[in-house]
């Protein structure tokens, strides 16, 4: 099934990566940043973080600025860079937008197995580093 991350405040390091693991990301425009702190803290990135960012952040310069420059990204900039799908003013507004999107997507009644395989096919390098094989269900079928 499609997944939606609703970022209510700061999403740093693993929180940023977790948000990127979703199909859709919504963020507040009035509060919070996306931030990869590893370069500022002198910590190396796990391989799968680099693969995730290559798979989900299309702009080479945006990846450079985020991963190698420690750029803190606010909502409007995250939309411009293609990192998030939408920004909304305030806690209630972003939560409601996430619920609306979830209902819209849920009403499509897509086959979850097909959706999951299509998602894995979009990100083969990421699935490979995580040990997920395209063509093999993530969850056992009943």
UniProtKB/TrEMBL annotation:
Any one GO CC term of the record: peroxisome
GO molecular function, one term: delta(3)-delta(2)-enoyl-CoA isomerase activity
SUPFAM superfamilies on file: ClpP/crotonase
Pfam families recorded: ECH_1 (PF00378)
Domain of life: Eukaryota
Biological process annotations from GO: fatty acid beta-oxidation
Sequence intervals crossing the membrane: none
Signal peptide interval: none
Protein name: Uncharacterized protein
Organism: Linum tenue
């Amino acid at each position: 099934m499609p997944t939606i991350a609703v970022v209510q405040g700061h999403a740093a390091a693993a929180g940023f990566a977790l948000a990127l693991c979703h199909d859709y990301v919504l963020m507040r425009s009035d509060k919070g940043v996306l931030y990869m702190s590893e370069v500022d803290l002198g910590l190396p990135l796990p391989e799968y973080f680099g693969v995730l960012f290559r798979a989900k952040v299309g702009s080479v310069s945006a990846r450079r600025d985020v991963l190698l420059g420690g750029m803190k990204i606010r909502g409007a900039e995250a939309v411009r860079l293609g990192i998030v799908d939408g920004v909304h003013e305030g806690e209630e507004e972003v939560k409601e937008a996430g619920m609306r999107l979830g209902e819209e997507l849920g009403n499509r009644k897509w086959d979850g197995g097909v959706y999951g395989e299509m998602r894995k096919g979009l990100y083969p390098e990421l699935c490979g580093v995580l040990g997920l094989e395209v063509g093999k269900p993530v969850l056992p079928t009943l």
